[in-house]
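Project outcomes to date are best conveyed with an example. Our students and postdoctoral researchers have been running inverse folding experiments weekly, and each run begins with a structure described purely in tokens. The record below, which covers 171 residues, was selected by the lab manager from last quarter's runs and is presented without edits.
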């Protein structure tokens, strides 16, 4: 792509990049904007090396990597006690949808704090219906390696949250 196409690409992809960043940083508007800005700065610098066909995957990867870098370099990771993470309504009643979503958010926040790569893989397979093959291609690894990482992530989640996470379909 040519540098002269940057403005067009920005207009077409800014919302997509912001939404990816917003979700990955735990619904933090200001941080999502910062990450979006950083991603587009990286795009501006590298635009001549990127093919139009690869743009969406490149942007997703850069959002993920920028988010991971941010949390590695800062102390902004939420510290949650295990007691906080295990709060969940009793199984014998009908589960309020809002409570289920709050628990799901806690599980995913804990996973992100523990291992951002596992978080990304679980999020992409559970919530974005991505295949192992798609993720392997994006990450430059094998399908088997993606499967191993997802197995480790699910094992960790099971140890942390037990049957509640399984009931939500995360495991």
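After processing, the design step wrote out the following sequence:
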């Amino acid at each position: 792509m040519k540098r002269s196409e940057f403005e067009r690409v920005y207009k077409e992809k800014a919302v997509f990049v912001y939404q990816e960043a917003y979700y990955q940083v735990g619904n933090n508007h200001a941080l999502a904007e910062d990450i979006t800005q950083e991603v587009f700065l990286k795009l501006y610098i590298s635009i001549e090396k990127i093919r139009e066909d690869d743009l969406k995957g490149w942007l997703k990867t850069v959002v993920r990597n920028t988010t991971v870098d941010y949390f590695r370099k800062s102390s902004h990771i939420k510290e949650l006690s295990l007691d906080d993470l295990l709060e969940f309504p009793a199984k014998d009643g009908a589960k309020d949808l809002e409570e289920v979503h709050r628990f799901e958010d806690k599980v995913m926040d804990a996973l992100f704090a523990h291992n951002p790569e596992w978080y990304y893989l679980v999020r992409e397979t559970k919530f974005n219906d991505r295949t192992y093959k798609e993720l392997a291609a994006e990450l430059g690894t094998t399908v088997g390696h993606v499967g191993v990482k997802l197995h480790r992530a699910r094992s960790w989640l099971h140890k942390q949250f037990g049957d509640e996470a399984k009931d939500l379909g995360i495991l």
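The longest helix spans residues 6-24. Confidence is low (pLDDT under 50) at residues 79-95. The training component of this project remains on track.
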